[in-house]
Amino acid sequence: MSGDFSPEQKRYLEGFTSGLQIARSGRGLGGKPAAQESSGPDAEHIAAQDRTVAAGGKLNDQEKFKREQHPFDAYGRLKEQAATNTPPKPADNFRWRYYGLFYVAPAQDSYMCRLRIPNGIVKHWQLSGLADLAVRYGGGYSHVTTRANFQIREIEPKNAVALLESIQDLGLCSRGTGADNIRNVTGTPTAGIDPQELLDTRPYAREWHFHILNERGLYGLPRKFNVAFDGAGTIPVLEDTNDIGFQAVEVKDGFGIEPGVWFKLALGGITGHRDFARDTGIIVKPADATKVADAIVRVFSAHGDRTNRNKARMKYVLDAIGFDKYLALVEDKLGSKLVRVPSEALATRPPFDRSAHIGVHPQKQNGLHWLGVVLPVGKLTAEQMCGIAAIAQQMGDGDIRLTVWQNLLISGIPAGKLQTAETAIKKLGLTTKASSIRAGLVACTGNVGCRFAASDTKRHAEEIARWCEARIELDGPVNIHLTGCHHSCAQHYIGDIGLLACKVQVSEDADPVEGYHILVGGGFGPDASLARELYRDVKAEDAPATIERMLKTYLARRASPNESFQAFTRRHEIPALTDMFAGAAQ
Known about the structure:
By secondary structure, the protein is of the alpha+beta class.
């Protein structure tokens, strides 16, 4: 008998050995052995899990879910659940978020679907199509999010697959918009039309978007991941609140580096965990942004915490090993050195206009304008979506541009059509004009549609706006952000006034009521700072009058007519502010 193995025997032995390796890696995980091979697109994640277990760590439940069955290998079961109108169990509720589906019980016995829209720009026919899908498969409305994106809500399990596939028919998708993945790619909303921009972010956001979609190895990270591109336009994109912020900057001549427009690289932003993205001293050629971002994400995937989800964001890897070590690992991935420059080599960024996302503004294209439309705390009915789409098609360039301020812009409107467009928007029950309060009003979904939220943030935001608009006339912007829980989807820490939902115990005998902790003095960009807590446990019904009192005190006691609310609150300690505001109530 020959000592050589036949091809069939070799294949058997290879399979047997592979099975042993998988079985070994699955020991101690508290679940079934890993179904994935140890090579292929998921290999990096499996290796990171294995290192965690080998070091004595215990994988969290979500890591076990991913290991037992990768969500993209389970689409057939999602279809089976749709056929029987069956809601998902916890493991599948996590997995289906890879497709952008969130089962939000007990807030609603239905799915929410979050889309992926690179740079936040959709065509008029896509918006009209989404309106039809919202009626056919959802609750007949959409929410604009703080990542310049759409959410469709109240989707029964039986409609989930039909909705996902219909979204793709529109040339859009929802892939990877939930769970431990790279979320919607944001960019300057006025990209390509802004007179002051240094760079049109659309091609770079688009390239990164398609890189994510077509690279399975970028799914299944230790935790979610955010990337934003700022082209130095007039409307802030809040890139300093992202894990990666690419900030367009002009590099001066005379520093041994090619002058021109580069991206400045900032890392580690996550304001819900009280940190902004920090300048790394590195600049990146725009054409290399996707390659650099890929390396950064893969280092995070290899070193992120897969045991404690509260400490699993990239910020905590940076805190643990330091920026220098992290960037050295990125350079190892790239196989080349990153470009470092002194701060004096970079020109100052053109300033923001905190009101530029509302109303009429001239574009760089002669005779054309963008028109910023106010949305009531980010909500649009299907009828309004169709109406906006028609206005964009008939009077603009056909684009609808979402912003991180939960509103939208219609671009490419000639001067002669502006009045007609504004009249049409008014007929939809919307407006292009807003008070300083409403223009900066941001609210997350709240407990109507999110199981984590402690208060009805959108309703309370409207109540605050209506109350204060009737009693105060401000001469400058004031951002008020209401967020329902510690996840800080509405980024309460960067608001001039931030409200974090809580339950307030009013008496021993009564059930707790909805309320807020109130913070002041937050900011972003050149004014970046985390808001400080001013009040705790304010009942929601008392919030409008409380904020009225704060704003009236500011107007009466500011140092000059030009002093902003942010500057006013920052130059006083919290006890002094509480004393002043208390005095105003007497």
